[in-house]
Amino acid sequence: MRTVLLTGFEPFDQDTINPSWEAVRALDGRLQDDIRIVARQLPCVFAQAPARLKQLLEEFEPELVIAVGLGPGRSDVCIERVAINLNDARIPDNLGEQPIDTPVVLQGPAAYFTTLPLKAMVQALKAAGIAASVSHTAGTFVCNQVFYCLQHALAGSAVRSGFIHVPELPEQAARSGGPSMPLSTQIEGLRIALITALNTVQDVRQSGGQVS
């Protein structure tokens, strides 16, 4: 049985829902006869999220890992390219901690790139009518911390891994005034993304809407 690990975050910033968790938990279970999806929630806490992620990697030994987080202000499914070795929180986490200008990993590399076939994933999402793009910044909050720790833990292994940001839900956007995406679209987008990641050996070369 091949295992895919999906993670989403608990609500944060005094909200009561986080679409990253709602979307990944809807996919928990068996995708195909030989593929099992394991969905687990991460705390939106700098001091706890990396340890929880490490525990999950050791417990399930997945062949593919996609961490998912909420990106307020984003209008599409954003496949992140790079995680940076920096915590610089614009708001406190769920335990009230707000690290400023600290490293994710002491003496770690400045950055890690995703090992997901991100352009093939974006192409597949767009072909299905779901707005998607490659993003070059995962921010400097807990999302980026988890992305960096994920790539750090799996560096040099055969396990593909990376991070996806999803937009707010319509009910959240009604309060914030920002863009949104229905939960059903987010769920289908993540399903397509992970299937593409599993089935794509080599990423496409794409620029300006063209594939080479």
Major sheet attributes: 7 strands, mixed
Structural class: alpha/beta
Percent of sequence in beta strands? 15-25%
Q: What is the overall pLDDT average?
A: 95
Count of helical regions: 6
End-to-end separation in angstroms reads: 34 Å
The strands making up the biggest β-sheet line up spatially as 2-3-1-4-9-5-8
Task: Give the low-confidence spans.
Answer: 208-212
**Rg from C-alpha positions?**
16 Å
Overall helicity: 25-40%
Shape: globular
Q: What is the H-and-E element order?
A: EHEEHEEEEHEHEHHEE
Number of strands: 11
Describe this protein's structure:
- A 7-stranded mixed sheet has the order 2-3-1-4-9-5-8, sandwiched between helices.
- It is globular.
- The chain has helices at 19-25, 49-60, 118-127, 142-154, 170-176, 183-199, and strands spanning 2-9, 29-32, 35-42, 64-70, 77-80, 82-84, 111-113, 132-135, 160-166, 206-207, 210-211.
- Helices cover 31% and strands 25% of the residues.
- It is α/β, with parallel strands linked by helices and 212 residues long.
Q: TL;DR?
A:
The protein is built from 6 helices and 11 strands. It is an alpha/beta fold.
Reconstruct the topology from this structure:
Elements lengths: L1 E8 L9 H7 L3 E4 L2 E8 L6 H12 L3 E7 L6 E4 L1 E3 L26 E3 L4 H10 L4 E4 L6 H13 L5 E7 L3 H7 L6 H17 L6 E2 L2 E2 L1
Parallel strand pairs: 1-3, 1-4, 4-9, 5-8
Antiparallel strand pairs: 2-3, 5-9, 6-7, 10-11
Helix pairs in contact: 1-6, 2-4, 3-6
